[in-house]
Amino acid sequence: MIRPSPLDGAESELPRAAMDTHDRDDLKVFAGRASRDLAESICRSLDLPLGQGHTDMFPDGELIVKLQEDVRGRDCFVVQSTYNPVNAHLMELLIYIDCLRRASARRITAVIPYFGYARQDRKDEGRVPITAKLVANLITTAGANRVLAMDLHAEQIQGFFDIPVDHLHAAPVVLKHIEGLRDKIGDFVLVSPDVGNVKTANRFANALGGDFAIIDKRRKSGTEVESANIVGEVKGRTVLMVDDMITTAGTVCEAAKLVKRAGARDVIAAATHPVFVGLAMERLAESPISRIIVTDTIPTEGRCKPIAEKLTQLSVARLLGEAIYRIHHNKSVSSLFTGNNKCSEGFEAMATAPVNAPPGGD
User: Fold this and answer.
1) Are strands 291-295 and 311-314 parallel, antiparallel or unpaired?
2) Which of 123, 217, 257, 331 is labelled catalytic?
3) What is the pLDDT of residues 317-361, one digit of tens each?
4) What number of other Cβ atoms are within 10 A of residue 27's Cβ?
């Protein structure tokens, strides 16, 4: 189920109240086929109509994007996550950007809630590509003027772009929901399912005022994970595990089994991106995890029936909508993660500062 999650702590500058006639004519939000539902929710938060455009496919599989309204001189945003099928969704995004550029849009922002290829961000062995950098080059060459992304798997990907990048985090939305579960959760501990996620888990622990533990993960292969040791105390407590994505679910499920064997009372997993491929559904359904919290950066309808009773999907539409509003009006992004926002405390260092330009976003 999708639960609307209002921003808890951003400046109380609501887009709906601030939009004027000029904004409605000058600001255009378009949707690729991968993220139409999310784009519609973003537009509702902005009190704007969704941009009129659609993608058709030729019999041979080629795509063509057609705009059905004038965008000359407008500030245009195109919303498209690049999840499976990654290449098809990425190509559609590139074509959409090119279409807007050739239609004389004043500025084009690629809104990529889930950035595919983010894990290919370095050469971890010889004779392999850095595909995240290639994708950044493609988006720039297609004609994008800036990028708005959410919870990139590797934050250094911002530096792969030669255009401004606004990097949002779903933390305020997820933390707000977890705060609402406090009475049910009881005594809890934040557990990092692997060493690479330590910083994020520690920030969540600080924001929630909980203890922190780490699991020493040992990987057998690209698809098999064996979790070994726990550093910290989990016995008799609810374990919260937070990550940027759940892909094959091997890491989080092995970690859940480990903390359960160590005496954890309950296990809750949260992730921004519900990638859910391979054996993920089967693993999550059979795991001791009682609740799985994700966002709608990737749609889940029609593919998550095995875990429907465990799954809660939160909406990041208003978060993205606020970011779009702020970018359009050249306002600060980082203020979303600072100030009096208790649920975002500890995430200031993660707040988005564009790589090559002043901040802009929510």
Assistant:
1) parallel
2) 217
3) 999 999 999 999 999 877 776 654 444 545 543 433 333 333 333
4) 22
Task: Please say whether the beta carbons of 82 and 115 come within 8 A.
Answer: yes
Angle at 174 between CA 329 and CA 345, to 5 degrees: 70
Over the Cα atoms of the chain, what is R_g?
Answer: 20
Question: What is the SS3 assignment for 58?
Answer: coil
- The C-alpha atoms of residue 1 and residue 47 are separated, in whole angstroms, by 23
Quote the pTM value.
0.89
Which positions ≥6 away from 261 have C-beta within 8 Å? Answer: none
As a whole number of angstroms, the distance between CA 339 and CA 348 comes to: 9
- Could you identify the residue written with the tokens 């990987």? 219
- pLDDT above 90 as % of the chain: 76
Token pair 């330590």: residue: 198
Q: How many CA atoms lie within 13 A of 195 on its CB side?
A: 6
Residue 29 has pLDDT above 90, yes or no: yes
DSSP secondary-structure letter at 334?
G
Nearest to 109 by CA among 274, 333, 313, 275: 333
User: Is 217 annotated as catalytic?
Assistant: yes
More confident residue, 318 or 225: 318
Alpha-carbon dihedral of residues 48, 52, 57, 62, nearest 10 degrees?
Answer: -90
Distance CA 292, CA 309 (A): 9
Distance from C-alpha of 167 to C-alpha of 136, rounded to nearest angstrom: 14
How does pLDDT run across 167-194, given as a tens digit for each residue? 999 999 999 999 999 999 999 999 998 8
For the residues of 30-45, what is the DSSP string, one character each? EE-GGGHHHHHHHHHH
Instruction: State residue 282's pLDDT score.
Output: 97
Average pLDDT over residues 232-259: 95
Question: What is the number of helices (H) and of strands (E) in the chain?
Answer: 11, 15
Of residues 17 and 302, the one with the higher pLDDT is 302
